[in-house]
Design brief:
Elements: E1 53-58, H1 63-78, E2 82-85, H2 87-92, E3 110-115, H3 117-127, E4 134-138, H4 150-161, E5 166-170, E6 173-179, E7 182-187, E8 192-197, E9 204-210, E10 213-220, E11 222-226, H5 234-237, E12 249-255, E13 265-268, E14 273-277, E15 284-288, E16 292-296, E17 300-306, E18 311-315, H6 321-329
Parallel strand pairs: 1-2, 1-3, 3-4
Antiparallel strand pairs: 5-18, 6-7, 6-17, 8-11, 8-15, 9-10, 9-14, 11-12, 12-13, 14-17, 15-16
């Protein structure tokens, strides 16, 4: 039997049976790559729920982004939507009444994030447990994860309020920092976890196990473990492959390995990874999504698997992942030779 997921159009007893004759869907969990849908319901599911309460967040200490966030909140209120400004966004505008991301109410239907990819990553790590989708509005330099440019926003917002949008479920990592077998702290990055040297320019030695089996002891500058979403970030710069973000899996990419035999690996999201330091020990640091960091000491380990709660990103613009690759990263383009 397929392990089914809430929200699958073909799940009996939860939603009415799908009326599409050609949709023989058997929903699958992100961590279960042995099951397949013959239609990708995860990125085709249209949310019928209307938006009644929304959270608006902007890039911290960015006045222009905060001003746009306030404009969005006012636009929503005029249309009967309860709009909440995030605490730091309100502080940037010298307003009171902002809400903390750690103390959000449970009835929020939508989060609108004004900023770049870093802002969306930060918000996604914090609010995903609440279950509402995020709509990214680009105010950064790249905007690979964000959906709309500011000039497109108010054209698409009425449809979003009416529930005419789809969501993409993006796999996250669950990273547990352990010492002597006990959990010190736990994180849920969307892009990647990076283990790298923190002091002198020396190679470090990193042991990797998958489901308890030793895979390799990497002699390199570090190791990147990324999600499919994070495959276009640091991992790509280090020579890793591009994965379609609708997939579930891990990309394991060594940073400047000492030997050519260490190549990137792609493994299913159903496995569990364990990262440890190997002798001789050097000063090592772990960084998550490029925003959270902590030292790794002798006797520490990182236990990494797929987080049960994905990030849900709102999609309204008619742009495919590969179109975004071409437009943002100039992927696959050929430069004609000069005459």
């Amino acid at each position: 039997m397929c392990r089914r997921v809430a929200g699958c159009p073909g799940q009996p007893g939860v939603l009415r049976p799908c009326r599409r004759r050609n949709w023989n869907c058997r929903g699958f969990e992100l961590a279960d790559l042995d099951r397949r849908c013959n239609r990708r319901w995860r990125d085709r599911l249209v949310t019928a729920k209307e938006i009644r309460k929304a959270l608006v967040v902007s890039k911290p200490a960015d006045l222009e982004a905060a001003t746009l966030a306030a404009e969005i909140a006012e636009w929503l209120r005029r249309r009967g939507v309860a709009a909440l400004l995030e605490e730091r966004t309100a502080e940037t505008l010298e307003l009171s009444g902002g809400v903390s991301l750690e103390q959000l109410p449970d009835d929020i239907d939508l989060g609108i994030v004004v900023g770049g990819d870093g802002t969306l990553l930060s918000v996604g790590r914090t609010v995903t447990r609440k279950g509402f989708p995020l709509l990214g509005v680009n105010r950064g330099s790249l905007g690979f994860l964000t959906e709309l440019q500011p000039e497109e926003l108010f054209e698409h917002l009425p449809g979003v309020l009416a529930g005419r949008y789809r969501t993409e479920r993006r796999q996250r990592l669950r990273v547990r920092h352990l010492h002597a077998g006990k959990i010190r702290q736990e994180f849920a990055p969307l892009n990647d976890a990076v283990v790298t040297k923190s002091a002198l320019a020396r190679m470090i030695h990193i042991s990797l196990r998958i489901d308890g089996e030793e895979v390799a002891v990497y002699t390199s500058d570090g190791l990147i473990i990324s999600t499919p979403t994070g495959s276009t970030a640091y991992s790509l710069s280090a020579g890793g492959p591009v994965l379609d973000p609708r997939m579930a899996g891990f990309v394991i990419t060594p940073i400047c390995p000492h030997t050519m035999t260490y190549r990137p690996l792609v493994v299913p999201a159903s496995v569990r990874l364990e990262v440890r330091l190997a002798p001789p020990f050097e000063a090592v640091y772990a960084t998550l999504d490029g925003q959270i960091g902590f030292p790794i000491e002798e006797g520490d380990s990182l236990a990494i698997d797929a987080h049960p709660d994905p990030v849900r990103l709102v999609r309204v613009a008619d742009r495919s992942f590969f179109e975004v690759l071409r437009r943002k990263l100039r992927w696959g383009e050929r430069t004609p030779p000069e005459a």
